[in-house]
Amino acid sequence: MTDHAFCVARAGALTTVQDLGRPGHAHLGVPRAGAVDAPAHRLANRLVGNPESAATLETTLTGCAVRVRRDTVAAVTGAPCPVTVDGRPAPWGAAVRVPAGAVLDAGPATHGLRSHLAFAGGIDTEPQLGSRATDLLSGLGTDPLTDGAVLPLGRPYGPPPAADAVPQPGPPGELLLPFLPGPRDDWFTGRGLHTLATGRFRVSAASNRIGLRTEGPPLERARTGELPSEGMPLGALQVPPDGLPVLFLHDHPTTGGYPVIGVVPERHLAAAAQAIPGTPIRFLPLRSGPATS
Amino acid sequence: MRPLPVGAHGLLIELDTADEVEALHAELLRRVADGTLPQVTEIVPAARTVLLDGLADPPGLIAELAGRHIPPLDASDRPSVEIPVRYDGPDLADVAALWGVTPDEVVRIHSGTAFHVAFCGFAPGFGYLTGLPEPLHVPRRATPRTRVPVGSLALAGPYTGVYPRSSPGGWQLIGTTDTVLWDPQREPAALLSPGTRVRFVPQDGPGPAAAHIQEAAR
Questions:
Q1: What average pLDDT does this structure show over A144-157?
Q2: Which domains does chain A have, with CATH numbers?
Q3: Of A288, B36, B82, B190, which is most buried by a Cβ count within 10 Å?
Q4: How far is the C-alpha of B126 from the C-alpha of B165, rounded, in Å?
Q5: Per the CB < 8 Å rule, is A292 touching B8?
Q6: Chain B window 142-161: which residues touch A at a Cβ cutoff of 8 Å?
Q7: Annotation: CATH topology of B2-73
Q8: Do the chains contact at B5 and A139, CB–CB below 8 Å?
Q9: Using an 8 Å Cβ cutoff, are A74 and A96 in contact?
């Protein structure tokens, strides 16, 4: 293996390789995968001069640390966290020079859930179906990181752009999830739809990259039973028999038999990616009727 | 054909029969191939629906599809696969009892059936195959197995399937194949995709690992 690589010093709770995923394979049962907080992934890449399709690390709550084998430029975005290089403080949300042999540590998130670590040249694992993304549902891509694992880096692309806008996210008081009703909102009573729009929901601790689960009042169904399996989109609010909506994230199954009451537009999923368990959720119905952009 | 909204960029088209689903799916794939379908990211056929996602203008596509004749499916257009199988599954006797026949009859009937992939899901490369008539539909196991071995040939409801990797599962296991259903390093990665014609060929003892893939003569 090339010496342009890093060795995992502290894998953290769940750290995966992510990029923009592998859309276009849902008909084979292959989830899209890819960064749940796509804007943070893209920004981290831009800060180190990578194309947005380059692979980064996505951490979960506790961050991670890696020892680089060569001088490398890296950046940490997404959930804000203390960043150090060999123990010395370094900026979050900015390009950081990491000398050969030094440890880059992205600490526990001060708020939010998922941080992204980009390295100049990107993580250069073998793509599968056009993507390097770890897919926890189907097992495609590199396994979640373990201590001591070595991952190759690609050749740096060149200097990053001179300036970029790095938003400093504050702790989210609540997660606002606008949704477009359908395709199966008619499986719920008027009271069930009202409950979704007005009920007090929270992010469940059972959430993961497959779906953000909720706690709250169950939605009343107008029809019982299951649908014949049908295609499930990213952002679907699927309602299993317990009546509590599950927001489908990037590793979601591509078909399913529980009704989808609404779909959250993709641009709102980055906020969901950063919502820790217990965060209050407010579902906001957008107008129904024929869909337009 | 009932179009239902799926977010801002998707459509779920609901149809009355599995044949209509397959005909619409084939028509959409033809139009992708000849470049006349607007940009779309996913086309996911299922039991009674086709999901389209990543559309710029879903209402425009609804209007266009509504005024269009969808030709009935020409099965000779679809690729076909033969999968060698050992009918040695632990639930073969139970399935025989449910069908009211002997295990040998199960082998004869199942291997004599022309299947096709109605849709995929559950796991990459897992195809839901239809073809068995309704009296031969069987329930899932009352208690799912925690581990079904890779290559298991299984029945549940109207469907036949082959587990592309070992996983928990509640289907009735009637056989085993060495055919690799899913290999992400292979092109195509999935042996079965929606529309593929499938026949199971009975085998005694360990057999060749490869399925015979025939592209349909056109």
A1: 97
A2: 5-152 (no CATH), 175-285 (2.40.100.10)
A3: B190
A4: 9
A5: yes
A6: none
A7: Gyrase A; domain 2 (3.30.1360)
A8: no
A9: yes
